[in-house]
């Protein structure tokens, strides 16, 4: 059995990257309409305002008490809320990561956040691929999207892993562009899971020590991620993720040189 190459997309030619949404069948329109209605409803309700540090600081004791009483239900609800926040690109996902670390601890909080975020990112990825189709590719075009597209077409897994480790582009954009250029779902999910673990663990650990901050009436320092002691290892992981790209480039250049040598006649 040949090994699976996670660095390649399912469809190498640009025109085969995704299936165009020809004619916009009623099924696609219904799903898209439902999604937009949910987005409008969420923002109209103002529930996204509750995903803030101020709202949590006012209710953290009640939240912790409710989580302690309900156990598994609380875990499921947290994962569901994180899924919704990522799927609908609600502001406040970062605070939810910190809250997850506070109420569940660093390790468990990291696991639940990664699960919810991956499910949400995968949902929007599948929605973009199978509902929006190739016809919406131009909607996210531009210099930034074109740069991402070139990277995904060449080395999908490594490029996605780097973008998840180091947020060079908005999270929602990294969810969409892979869907439009034919990145395999398995590659997308694996790259997302592995890529968001380190940053999630950092912010969950901030939440784990949030008790003292709340007692002092302060706010956690979100710039911690850019501290050299934290950002340095993330850059190191990103460099490791790029090693397969460098290796493929080196082997490609070596094969080209060997090919040139093979042109020479063998024997005397």
Tell me what you see in this structure.
This protein is mostly helical and 268 residues long. The chain has one domain (24-260). Helix content is 71%, strand content 0%. The protein has eleven helices and no strands. It has helices at 26-45, 53-70, 72-87, 93-104, 106-132, 143-154, 156-165, 171-180, 185-208, 210-215, 228-262. Helix 4 (93-104) runs antiparallel to helix 5 (106-132) and helix 7 (156-165) runs parallel beside helix 9. Mean pLDDT is 74; it is low at 1-5, 9-22 and 260-268.
Brief description of this entry?
It is built from eleven helices and no strands.
Largest sheet: none
Radius of gyration: 22 Å
Separation, N- and C-terminal Cα atoms: 40 Å
Strand composition percent: under 5%
The structure class reads mainly alpha
The gross shape turns out to be: globular
Q: Percentage of helical residues?
A: over 70%
Mean pLDDT: 74
What's the helix-strand series? Answer: HHHHHHHHHHH
Quick one: how many beta strands?
0
Spans of at least 5 consecutive residues with low confidence = 1-5, 9-22, 260-268
Number of helices: 11
Taken together, the total number of domains comes to 1
């Amino acid at each position: 059995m040949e090994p699976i190459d996670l660095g390649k997309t399912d469809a190498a030619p640009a025109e085969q990257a995704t299936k165009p949404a020809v004619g916009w069948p009623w099924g696609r329109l219904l799903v898209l309409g439902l999604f937009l209605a949910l987005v409008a409803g969420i923002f109209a309700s103002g529930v996204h305002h509750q995903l803030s540090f101020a709202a949590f600081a006012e209710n953290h004791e009640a939240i912790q008490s409710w989580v302690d009483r309900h156990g598994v239900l609380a875990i499921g609800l947290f994962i569901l809320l994180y899924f919704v926040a990522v799927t609908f690109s609600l502001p406040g996902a970062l605070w939810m990561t910190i809250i997850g670390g506070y109420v569940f601890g660093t390790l468990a909080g990291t696991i639940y956040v990664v699960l919810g975020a991956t499910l949400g990112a995968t949902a929007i990825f599948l929605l973009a691929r199978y509902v929006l189709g190739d016809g919406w590719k131009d909607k996210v075009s531009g210099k930034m999207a074109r740069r991402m597209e070139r990277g995904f077409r060449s080395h999908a897994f490594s490029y996605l892993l780097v973008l998840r480790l180091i947020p060079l582009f908005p999270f929602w954009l990294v969810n969409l562009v892979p869907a439009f250029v034919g990145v395999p779902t398995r590659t997308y999910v694996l790259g997302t899971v592995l890529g968001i673990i380190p940053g999630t663990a950092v912010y969950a650990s901030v939440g784990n020590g949030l008790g003292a901050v709340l007692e002092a009436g302060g706010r956690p320092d979100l710039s911690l991620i850019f501290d050299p002691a934290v950002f340095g290892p993330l850059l190191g992981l990103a460099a490791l993720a790029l090693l397969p790209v460098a290796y493929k480039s080196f082997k490609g250049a070596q094969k080209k040189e060997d090919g040139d040598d093979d042109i020479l006649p063998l024997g005397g």
